[in-house]
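dude i think i finally got it to work??
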Amino acid sequence: MTAIAVTVSGLHPMIPPARLLGPTFRPTGETWTADLAPAAAADVAARLRALTLAGSRLEVTLLPKLGRDAIRAARTRDAVARRNTTPRGDLRVDEVGRIGASPAKLADALAARWSGAVVVDAMAGCGGDALAFARAGCRVTAIEIDPGRAALLRENARAARLAITVLQTDARIALEGLSGDLLHVDPPWDDLPSLHGVWAHRHRFGDATAKLPPHFDPNVLPSCSWEPVFGLAEGDRHRVKWLHATYKGRPNQGWRA
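look at this
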């Protein structure tokens, strides 16, 4: 069986190659290469097809090229794999939440870094992140402008027996009277410009974090540290679920992560 030389270019430095591509890829200048069996090479090409990560579009080349049948089969396998992703947990959601709600285990791992903090979760949606902060022992105020999602957030908090203050209002207005240890922002991914009016309030808090789509360009939010968040299930363990931005501000109320 002829090995296929797979070359991937355009990988942003924040993305760990072994996690995204697999352990067999090696650096060759500004690209990453591996010699793979035809099916494995086709699977990499299918998974990375038309993918932009951290503002950088990935390019995949295969030598020799594979036939259409091999590529078509790999895309079918990729579509099937995407059904087996990290679960949201017991969270009631609407159509928007079905797309953007954080899987419980991933949200819990991030929230644990701010255990016991005073947290404002702006643009909180159905509450996936707010519940995770509450499970971590944080005092949480969650802001959601959509009345339907605010209602679901309250239901989710009651079902989980977690104390969360829910404000159904515009976060840009509510934040003028709020402060705390952490501002967390998860803007609608189909309305990313809405992030900026909320992010402008980060200086009222000790720290600020943002959950942003994998394609988001980190240069848009300077002075942040960044990390990609990968899934845990077979279908998304090699996929970036979102980019996590952290802005370290001033110590607030004697608490620091």
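The chain has two domains: 4-81, 95-248.
im so relieved honestly
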